[in-house]
Design a protein that fits this description.
The protein is α/β, with parallel strands linked by helices and about 230 residues long. It is about 30% helix and about 25% strand. The chain has a six-stranded mixed β-sheet, with helices on both faces.
Length: about 230
Amino acid sequence: MPSETPVLELTMAVADTAADLAVGVPLSLRLLPGESALIEAADAAQLTAFADLCSGLIEPLSGRVRFLGRDWQELPHDYAAALRGRIGRVFSVGAWVPFVDVTTSILLPSLHHTRRDRRELRDEALALAREFGLPGLPLDRPEDLTQGDLNRAALVRAFLGEPLLVLVEDRPNLSLSRSAAVLNRIVAVCDSGGAVIWLARERTIGDPTAFPATHHLRLSDQGLALLRQAA
């Protein structure tokens, strides 16, 4: 991927007002390799819908959303699904397969999109689990784990497999300033040519300067407003 190609680019994208995003004005955002964005909003559902828009799961009524230079709307379904394999995501709630253990849920997305050996992928997941404070990979089902352990497991799944874009949605008790391991992993993604977006509710954001963001924006019914940009 040429260095000048944005990892993610929204160009005057207007989402369907029936979606939870509920923003009737065009949204524009350009993240180059190595850049990161902190986006805050009052409504968690709005943040989730924005992540869906970035991932090509919501089609804009007008404008463009491109990932690695490719327009989601112009891609065949199978190609778009494969490209989504380069996106790691921490979902605000749920997103666990209820009838299997959490480790299987962690590994499934990466196994679906890679030819890497299962043992190699599992070893990487185990290293990430320990990095984020888990004693090992959770063998319990989601309902048997604490919220804190589910947060750590969600981070393992999002950062597994060297993603080029990571979308971190706000979760209960997941503070962007609370874990040096999370911040170090975000920096590692950016240093390797990827990009990260942290989507946080305004009342839980904590210290925004703790996140190494090149763009700090607020999402509201009026669109995206720039609050701060790195020099």
